Amino acid sequence: MPKKSDNSPDAPTLKEQMEALATIVEKLEDPDIDLEESLALYERGMALVATAGKVLEAAEQRVAMVTGDGEVQAIEP
After folding, report:
1. pTM of the predicted model, to two decimals?
2. Per-residue model confidence (pLDDT) at position 2
């Protein structure tokens, strides 16, 4: 089972957060969406971005610790 993004058992994984963001973007691109719904979706999207950013920052810190020098190295494809 994938690790959740925080200690809460109901917290969505990073993958789930990214999928939710993709769905929100899709809905926001609909020209027929009303203002109130678009604002609510935008707020939800920004909350997901903040949460996902924290997860990614934590992962970056873990990588820096593993490299031993405290610097994050770029991963070349």
Report:
1. 0.68
2. 46
